[in-house]
Amino acid sequence: MKTKEELQELAQLVRILEASCNIEYPTPQELNFRLAIMKKLAEAHHLKELRACTITGPASAPHD
């Protein structure tokens, strides 16, 4: 069973991710930040759907 502090940390990560995803035109650094938060949440929740996946980063600047 997770402690109160661990649950609070996960809730904070979710709030950070939600705020980050509301950025309409993210920079490559913001995309990398999102990716890092998503990886941390997936690891914390032991998501079986992502066990076989390879999540790569960092994001690069868009090509014009």
Structural features, described:
The chain has 64 residues and is an all-alpha fold. It is 56% helix and 0% strand. Helix 1 (4-21) runs antiparallel to helix 2 (28-45). The longest helix is centred in the N-terminal third of the chain and has 18 residues, at 4-21. The chain is flat. The model has no long low-confidence stretch (mean pLDDT 83).
Q: Give the N-to-C terminal Cα separation.
A: 49 Å
**Unreliable segments of 5+ consecutive residues:** none
**Beta strand count:** 0
What's the tally of helices? 2
Strand content: under 5%
Question: Helical residue percent?
Answer: 55-70%
Decide which structural class fits the backbone.
mainly alpha
Determine the mean pLDDT: 83
Q: Shape, please? A: flat
Q: How is the biggest beta sheet arranged?
A: none
The helix-strand sequence is HH
Computed CA radius of gyration, to the nearest angstrom: 14 Å
Provide a concise account of the structure shown.
This protein is mostly helical and 64 residues long.
Labels describing this entry:
single chain; 2 helices; flat; 64 residues; mainly alpha
Layout of helices and strands:
Blueprint: H1 4-21, H2 28-45
Helix pairs in contact: 1-2
